[in-house]
Each structure stands twice: as structure tokens, then as C-alpha cells.
Amino acid sequence: MNPEKSEAPAPLKVGVVGIGWAGQQHLKAYSTIPGIEIVAVAGMEEELLLALQAEYAIPHAFLRWEDMIGHQELNAISVAVPTFLHAPIAVAALERGLHVLSEKPLARTAEEGRTMVAAARKAGRVLDVAFNHRRRGDIQKLKSIIDAGELGRPYYAKASWLRRTGIPRLGSWFTNPELSGGGPMADIGVHVLDYALHLLGEPKVLSVSATVHAELGPKGRGGSARFSPMSAEHAFEVEDFASAFLRLEGGATLLIEAGWASYRETDDLIGFMVYGTDGGAELKAKGSPSAPVGELTIFTDRNGENADYMPEAQPGRGHQAVVEDFVQIVRGGESVWGDHDGSLALGRAEIIDACYLSAREAKEVQL
Questions:
Q1: pTM for the complete prediction?
Q2: Strands 99-103 and 76-79: what pairing?
Q3: Which of 209-243 are b and which e, b meaning 16 or more Cβ less than 10 Å from the residue's Cβ?
Q4: For 69-101, what is each residue's pLDDT tens digit?
């Protein structure tokens, strides 16, 4: 008696809105996952759009995102466009019953983010956000050490992403708050906030006290061809450096620094430092985000003697891991979808909003 053959699950049909660097990372990741069909792509740069359509053998290409999400074959989409478009595209897609993976930040404001989360809950669909830096191998290694209790109870931490000349496209949508939601605190600071709270075990943030500075960008300094050509479409109306002091439930504190441009060493730095009751740790990823693994040191003692060590970490998998996780969640079915409605990313957005409010009013803001 031959056992019955189980039918293979139907392919998951996906589309990508946005064809810049982030959108290309999503396309690349989807193309490697078995059982995924990339059936549509949308972007405004027609020459690049057609090139990517040919490269990935995508049946349908659209200049307008509205036309793409109306495509009947889709099950899920990635949203990799400027921040002001995250909410309208995600909400429209969710209302059509599509699962959504959005680039960070969730939206320009927490208010916009709440409309996205509400749409995901109403539709019973997944809304996930691409926090790829928590997938760094060095951060994952440090997370396992903290979770194992090697450092005891963390009571103070500092997390940073600092650049010397890293303002993305001076005078573009990045530097217009109506389009971007903010400067480095919203752009790269949300990554720093995410991996820091992730490492610390997701403590509740009780209050923030923040400052922002715009010292170089308004003078036309701090941009770099590494990121993209200069543009003159918009004035520089956001900060180029921000810091925030966060009080956490349980008495711990966290300092966040996010800088697009400042007079410091040339290489970017993604960093994290933590003091715990039984040990400490410091991560320095110089040249990030291109540097695959940073320098991780654990500070501890044994029998009263210094026992510091440097654990090995493997390179992370960035957007590949983000997209694979999203696909796994979608394939997990309705029993898991409700746990992935964008709430975590909304919490990050609420903290970022509080930081900007604190900076504007020069006072501590309670959450």
C-alpha cells in the first residue's frame, strides 16, 4: 500500500514596491526562497524597473503602486519606498487582504503607524517591519550572552550609530520632515533603538529626554556620494545629530545616539555598551553597516580575577533573514498572524515621537 502523497503548498505570490537599494534587497531575498513567486514589482524609475523585471523574470511591472496592489495574484508585498508612503501603501494593501513587510520606520509618526496596525488587525493579516540590524551576527551573539544571564541584570546601556559624512541625499525627501518624519533619529536612530531594546529584553520605556542638533546639514556639509548624489529639491529642515536618555522600567537607563554627520573619525560606527551587575559588554562595529562583524568584548571576572574575553560571532544575514522570517510568519497561518500586527514597530514609533517632542519642548516626556 503506497502512502498518499501530500500536495505541495501553493506558491506564495509576492510583489515589491520600491526599486532602490532596499527594494532590491527584498527582491534578492525573495528570489532565493523556495515556493516564492515574485509576480509584480513597482517603481518610478522606468529603466531600472525594466532591468529588475528582466533580471528576476517578473511577469508584471508597474510605474504606479496603486496599479500593483490591485493585481489579483498577490498574497503579500514588501514596501520599500520613502517614509511618507509607508502608511498609504500598507493600509491599501492590507485592506485588499495582502500581508505587508515594510521598511523602517513604520511611518512618519505614531499616529500614522496606528492606522497601519488597525488595518492589519481588521484584515487579520501580517504587518511586519524590516529591522535588519537586530539580525547582525554580533548582536545576536551578545543577545544570547545577555539572555543566559552572564552579565547579571543590565542597569545602564548606550547604543549609537554615528557617521561623519552620511546625510542621505542633501536636499532630498530625507531632509524634509513632511516626507521623512525626521532626520537621523527617525532614519537610523530607530534601528539603534530597536536593537538596544531587543538586547535588553524589551523593557518598557517610561520616559525620554532628548536633544537634536542641525549644525552641518543646513550649511551643505555632511553629505556623501557614498549614499547618493546631492539634490536641491528641499531645504535641510531636520536634525543631523540626535541623542536621547531613556528611563526604563525596573530602574535601568539607556542612552541613544544617532548622527548623520559630525566631526569624528571617518568610518561609521554601530555601537552598544552595557553595564550589568555581574559583567559588561561592548560592541564596536566600525565601518558599519558594510562591516559584517564588529569587535565584541565581554567584561567579567572569575574568582576575583579579570576574565574578559572576545566571543566569536558569525556575519548576520540582514534583509535575507528579515524576508525569510516574514515568509515563515505568513506561511504559519492565522494562528500566528495576530502576533505580528506591527505593534512592536508602533512602540518604536511612539518612542521616536516622544524624543522629538522632548527636544522641541526641552523637557522630559513621559510615555
A1: 0.94
A2: parallel
A3: bbebbbebbeeeebbbeebeeeeeebebbbbbbbb
A4: 998 899 999 999 999 999 999 999 999 999 999
